[in-house]
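[Automated response] Your request has been received and processed.

Submitted sequence:
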Amino acid sequence: MSKIKIFNGYIITPFENLGLGTVLIENDKIIGVEKGNTEVSGYEEIDANLNYISPGFIDLHTHGGANHDFMDCSVDGFLQAVNIHAKHGTTLLYPTTLAGDNSELFAFFETYEKANKVNEKGAKFGGIHLEGPYFSYNHRGAQDPKYLRNPDPEEYTEILENNKNIVRWSIAPELPGAIEFAQNLTKRGILPSIAHTDAIYEEILTAFEAGFTHITHFYSCMNGITRRNAFRYAGCIEAGYLIDKMTVEIIADGIHVPKPLMKLIYKIKGAENIALVTDSMRGAGMPDGKSILGSLQKGQEVIIEDGVAKLPDRSAFAGSVATTDLLVRNMINIAEIPLNESIQMATSTPARIANIGHKKGRIAVGYDADIIIFNKNIDIQNTIIEGKLI
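Generated structure:
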């Protein structure tokens, strides 16, 4: 039996700071959370050295890292990507696709299952997030336009029947057939998410009622107030604010969402409805220079500079190069959000959105032992995943 005692650190639950305390782990579960230094025997001891003890970060949306994209369909690439994210405090992540052809998608499914069986030293997989190909051409961002199309029941049924690890699918809800598609997804327990959309408020409201309860990379690749035949309409951004129970995710790298918008989103939505996501491509953890968005075989060339990936003509961002510790650090230092709530947006809120809030995202008895230790600058000192020191 594996037993670990973490002590001499400030425990963040994340809803409160319990002060200096002890966390006890047996196998893969938390069995004790107590103030002070609890005396026990037979435990491997980890001295937190007056740093913070926090739930591990949960990244709902990432395409890769360490010069590997999940669409490369390489088991070693999967493992290297999740390893770099674990070093930056992520204990659970959701490998995310790009719009592409289905042969590449099915290869991704196969690689995911192979990598999941041998993943011992990186962030664990929470399930698959499909991003596309059912997107608006007007808000395609860096998605390859040749792959964009409307939802096709025959196509998406084949995909859904091919793999049972899909937990979320990001699509534009205004496309023909999208509402029926969302209803199909919700019956299967899969989260329909709004993304790369030209929808106005009324369309978003209809989508929300059909199961679209989350917005992918809020502010990126979606419209705000717009005009149609001279009349002014509220867009997806305004809908995200107005629908109280709509959750949003933000790429808090300070570039995709700058300081004023970080503060505005927090002010209106609150930490309980915001998830921090990296949306990282292969450039996460890599130096500036040329890179590839998507697979090495069929991806697009991009440039990493100014802390972000861009299309070669610099007309749009092409994904982030962030890690989750940077997002939390930015929410504290740039957006001036309290530590506990910044941690909440990287732990319990994404856990609730992913429907795993009963076992992930908190330091509490009975929860999975996904725990990180970091200093005041959110520099990760230790990562523990399912009770194992990574």
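Summary generated for your ticket: The chain has a mean pLDDT of 95. The domain at 3-53+376-389 is CATH 2.30.40.10 (Urease, subunit C; domain 1).
If you did not submit this request, please reply to this message.
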